[in-house]
Amino acid sequence: MRDLDEDALLARIFPHLPRGASTLVPPGDDAAVVAAPDGRFAVTTDVLVEDRHFRRRWSGGFDVGVRAAVQNLADVAAMGARPTSLVVSLVVPGDLPAQWVEDLARGFGAMCAPLEVGVVGGDLSGGPVVVVAVTAHGDLEGREPVLRGGARDGDVVAHAGVRGRSAAGWALLEEGRADVAPDLVAGYLRPSSPLALGPAAARVGATAMIDVSDGLVRDAGRIGRASGVVLDLVGPSAYGADVAALAAAATALGRDAGDWVMTGGEDHGLLATFPQGRALPEGFRVVGRVRAGEPGVVVEGRAWTGSAGWDHFG
Ligand SMILES: Nc1ncnc2c1ncn2[C@@H]1O[C@H](COP(=O)(O)OP(=O)(O)OP(=O)(O)O)[C@@H](O)[C@H]1O
Ligand SMILES: Cc1ncc(C[n+]2csc(CCOP(=O)(O)O)c2C)c(N)n1
Ligand SMILES: [Mg+2]
Ligand SMILES: [Mg+2]
Ligand SMILES: [Mg+2]
């Protein structure tokens, strides 16, 4: 596994997976779309693993519940769908206080109840570390899903949500410096995604969309490769306010705030492409252009030479 990256591993998995009779959008996007006799729905799953995504000494059950919900709801929103329901599978070690699990459920409730998203079931098992695996469903409300593969030469690239805050908060926790910027730590522990802007982007004709889980540059590259175009992003110098908000943390840790903005994961903003001249939903900000060229991503016209963004294996 150490010799593969996530995309290479998926390329080995996908050929073996049956398409089934009802698949409208197969694996490869933020969610699949499945036909139902009375319509169709988006479905997606993401897992959080103790000591890979969170540490129990930093994150309470409530935090992990919020985060697991957001991570999955954002994948639904990135299809242009409205989330409707979750199911939650838990693996819990024997030393875990029952209160932690109750707090986890409260975290799901706090995130989902205001959205009228039901948490409608799940599964329980024991195991060596905490694992929270969530499946989320969404309603496309009669619209076409917004795929990763629809960006076209001449489109604008726009982003909604925060940039780099989760990465900065995670770095502060790792270095024992949470005191430097508690707001950034909160952005890591309990990220917030502009979920309503997924359907809003779809309604104004977004051509492609992804939620940013592995970093702007890496996830922009996924749209570029899926669409057969290149996304040319603005660089860190265009993100003055974002960089300023991360400056104290970057200074304290000797890290680069611009790198967090461009490559930090787990913010769960929405990155979308729109036809040129389209009025964007409020909350989206233009961060680049789509051009013809070697499919993928460039920053200010050049290959990105900063860190690559998150990959579990690569
Ligand atoms: N084990 C697997 N079997 C089948 N399909 C998979 C598997 N793992 C991932 N996929 C599919 O591969 C695509 C990419 O998955 P990935 O997890 O990178 O996307 P994501 O959930 O949007 O990102 P992230 O997990 O970083 O938040 C998705 O369509 C997903 O359903
Ligand atoms: C303890 C700890 N170590 C490392 C990280 C960083 N991290 C883990 S997964 C991920 C990207 C998205 O994951 P996925 O693709 O699984 O959704 C990132 C940035 C963390 N959050 N906690
Ligand atoms: Mg996603
Ligand atoms: Mg995933
Ligand atoms: Mg990922």
UniProtKB/TrEMBL annotation:
Binding-site residues, Mg(2+) 5: D214
Residue numbers binding substrate: H53, E266, W310
Binding site for Mg(2+) 4: D30, T44, D75
Chain residues that bind Mg(2+) 3: D30, D75, D211
GO biological process, one term: thiamine diphosphate biosynthetic process
Binding site for Mg(2+) 2: D46, D75
Primary enzyme class: transferase
Binding site for Mg(2+) 1: T45, D46, D123
List of residues binding ATP: G122, D123, R148, S213
Catalysed conversion reaction: thiamine phosphate + ATP = thiamine diphosphate + ADP
The EC number(s) this enzyme carries: 2.7.4.16
Gene Ontology molecular functions: ATP binding; magnesium ion binding; thiamine-phosphate kinase activity
UniProt keyword list: ATP-binding, Kinase, Magnesium, Metal-binding, Nucleotide-binding, Thiamine biosynthesis, Transferase
Domain PurM-like N-terminal: 28-138
UniProt pathway: Cofactor biosynthesis; thiamine diphosphate biosynthesis; thiamine diphosphate from thiamine phosphate: step 1/1
Further information: Reaction mechanism of ThiL seems to utilize a direct, inline transfer of the gamma-phosphate of ATP to TMP rather than a phosphorylated enzyme intermediate.
Family, as annotated: Belongs to the thiamine-monophosphate kinase family.
Function statement: Catalyzes the ATP-dependent phosphorylation of thiamine-monophosphate (TMP) to form thiamine-pyrophosphate (TPP), the active form of vitamin B1.
Designated name of the protein: Thiamine-monophosphate kinase
Organism, as annotated: Cellulomonas rhizosphaerae
